[in-house]
């Protein structure tokens, strides 16, 4: 048998990674075997071992090669972060949710992270994975600080609370949508969902309570 070229070997390796993503998303990491991945890729189990030592090795390779979501969507937001930090952040959230809704591969990765994986020591830590394809606390905090500097947010705002709210929103919407995507159109509803959470986090402390007392 002719020896495979480097290009052919890399193609097989990537095919195994893509097949693993599909199998992990459908059946879960724990319930997927190397044979399942090999069959889905149309190769022998021996071919899997040529490229990977174990299922966990494949799992880690998936996330090591995955570009951070914020890098994928960065150039799709045209607003100057220094001039319109909150609009910039709002549009990044909208684009991120719509990208997840439209891209089947990223959706499968999110399914693995939120519903199909129990982490063990040998795996890439969940926190590192979330930094790649989920909410970036460092980036969002930097944008919020710009908003305070520009006067878009009041100086007394507690950025830690805002980060908790935004993280809970982003993770909660994705997790619930993945459980039953037929219940609502994430792509279509992304702008409205984001606008509502941005309205909540940018309200001045006590504003809602004051408005409620006036209404009473």
Structure description:
This protein is mainly alpha-helical and 216 residues long. It has two domains: 6-65, Orthogonal Bundle (Arc Repressor Mutant, subunit A), CATH 1.10.10.60; 69-202, Orthogonal Bundle (Tetracycline Repressor, domain 2), CATH 1.10.357. The protein is 70% helix and 0% strand. It has twelve helices and no strands. The longest helix has 22 residues, at 6-27. Mean pLDDT is 89; it is low at 207-212.
Short overview:
The chain is mainly α and 216 residues long. The protein has 12 helices and no strands.
**Alpha-carbon Rg, integer:** 21 Å
> What is the CATH architecture annotation of the largest domain?
Orthogonal Bundle
Provide the residue-averaged pLDDT: 89
Give the number of helices: 12
**First CA to last CA: what distance?**
83 Å
Please give the number of β-strands.
0
- CATH C-level of the largest domain: Mainly Alpha
The topology string of helices and strands comes to HHHHHHHHHHHH
What is the percent of helical residues?
over 70%
Overall, the morphology is: elongated
CATH topology of the largest domain: Tetracycline Repressor, domain 2
Share of residues in strands: under 5%
What number of domains?
2
The profile of the biggest β sheet is: none
Low-confidence stretches: 207-212
The helix/strand class is: mainly alpha
In CATH terms, the superfamily of the largest domain is: Tetracycline Repressor, domain 2
């Amino acid at each position: 048998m002719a020896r495979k070229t480097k290009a052919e070997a890399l193609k097989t390796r990537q095919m195994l990674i893509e097949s693993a993503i599909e199998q992990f998303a459908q059946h879960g990491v724990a319930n997927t075997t190397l044979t399942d991945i090999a069959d889905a890729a149309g190769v022998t189990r021996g071919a899997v071992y040529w490229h990977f030592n174990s299922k966990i090795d494949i799992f880690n390779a998936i996330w090591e090669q995955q570009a951070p979501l914020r890098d994928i969507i960065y150039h799709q937001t045209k607003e100057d972060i220094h001039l319109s930090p909150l609009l910039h952040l709002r549009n990044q959230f909208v684009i991120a949710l719509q990208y997840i809704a439209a891209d089947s591969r990223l959706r499968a990765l999110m399914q693995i992270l939120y519903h199909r994986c129990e982490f063990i020591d040998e795996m890439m830590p969940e926190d590192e994975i979330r930094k790649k394809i989920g909410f970036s606390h460092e980036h969002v905090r930097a944008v919020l600080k710009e908003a305070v500097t520009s006067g878009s947010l009041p100086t007394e705002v507690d950025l830690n609370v805002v980060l908790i709210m935004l993280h809970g929103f982003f993770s909660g919407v994705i997790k619930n949508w993945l459980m039953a995507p037929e219940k609502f159109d994430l792509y279509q509803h992304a702008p409205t969902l984001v606008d509502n959470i941005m309205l909540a986090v940018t309200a001045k402390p006590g504003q809602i309570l004051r408005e409620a007392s006036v209404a009473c």
